[in-house]
Model the fold of this input.
Amino acid sequence: MEKWEDNKAWFLVLPVFVIVAFSAIIPLMTVVNYSVQDIFGPGQRVFVGTEWFREVLADKRLHDALWRQFLFSGMVLLIEIPLGVMIALMMPKKGWGVSASLVTIALPLLIPWNVIGTIWIIFTRPDIGLLGAAINTLGIAFDHTASPTDAWITLMLMEVWHWTPLVALLAYAGLRAIPEAYFQAARIDGASAWATFKYIQLPKMRGVLTIAVLLRFMDSFLIYAEPFVLTGGGPGNTTTFLSIYLVKIAVGQFDLGPAAAFSLIYFLIVLLFSWLFYQALQNVGKGEAS
Amino acid sequence: MTIQKRTIGLLIYFVLLMLPIYWMLNMSLQTNADILSAFSIYPKDITFGNYLKIFTDKSWYSGYINSIIYVSINTLISLTVALPAAYAFSRYHFVGDSQIFFWLLTNRMAPAAVFLLPFFQLYSTFGLIDTHIAVALAHCLFNVPLAVWILEGFMSGVPREIDETAYVDGYSFPRFFITLFLPLIRSGVGVTAFFCFMFSWVELLFARTLTTTAAKPIAATMTRTVSAGGLDWGLLAAAGILTIVPGALVIWFVRNHMAKGFALGRV
Done:
């Protein structure tokens, strides 16, 4: 489908541009400004060029946090996207079950992020938490404050519990937007459920799945409140993700310059990978969808 | 047979999904001492004391009111500006369209910690600190791009012949957009409204940075129980249960728009 060529469409975009640019541009410039200066106090600052960037890029602990972050986000995408699509396919298409499913599935999304962490602290406690007690009853020693493996499992469980509904809701809305005529055609052709999924539902969900993948990648890569509350980055540094480390530098050591340089590098990594995902998903769609 | 398997799978998922929420509900109906003293699968002495405290203490319930105000403003602004923009992106080619489209999303990609200070300075300059509109506007930074992206996806699913036919029939753009086009993408509008509401509702860092008392959000009020001499789990759990309620109501209202889907034959 060719789009219409018309620069007057800019007038439709202008309100969005103004409202977003108001909050976006000045803070970003300020952070860029911080990142090239050494700030001692109000009015006392020295231009240091790229020193902070070189310092941050050479930081061993940052490298570790970065790999941890990639592992985390990779697992999040691999688990949540297929699971969310599966749940969306299982959800009823009509009747009272639709409303019930939609409301139920949205519940985890509505809890503030710091509260999610707090709830899971007690939910996984072996003495008074449901999950912790259940696992202990099975005879497995489980303690996310001592064992790095347990900490990761708990974090992943919490993350999947918290965010799979987002993928499922998007996928469900995408599925409902497919005209019934496509399914009728598939039925007439005697297509199997798998063929219907592969050639009709999946290509038609490309738009919503692109958004789902990008959102889950960005938000899981920037995750802060939930692991900070649940594990505090520990045991040791085993769950210190990038943003937890960033806050340690920015608030703990109050080094505004390096923290700003760190933020910009962090931002560029998220930007680069989101762009790659976006391009990849656009092209996959072109090959399959008619 | 397959339908039954589906239903069973879905039910298992829902049970797992509800477990942590049930545990929160369970805790919210007990006193702090009861929660910490022994494990119990259901509350033995049900008490509504935690809820009573939230509904009678102004510092608690005003948090809910503040959150509802700025979240509603934000959802309204986001949808109003995003709808025409999403239409432009889905239908037209114009200078810088794909760049602007992706730039919008980049505003969700910055780690918040270091940006909070310049954010605070910017909003102080405009005298907006501790107002609902400040938080609503700040949340537009991540909600407007999301709304544009989701809506654009749904709009692109609508064949362009519908627009062409309407314009040939003499519809003006606003009349076509509101009476013909919006009903076609209602499931998309429903999802978008819910997501704007949700992301604004659970966001804490901006909301806390830009407010002190008059517009303090509920999520910030809840961190107070964490700091004050040990944790009052019961009170926190009750507050947590209550934070779910407004969003559940929103999704209840948009559920039909999400479920109806898209009937091509209607036009």
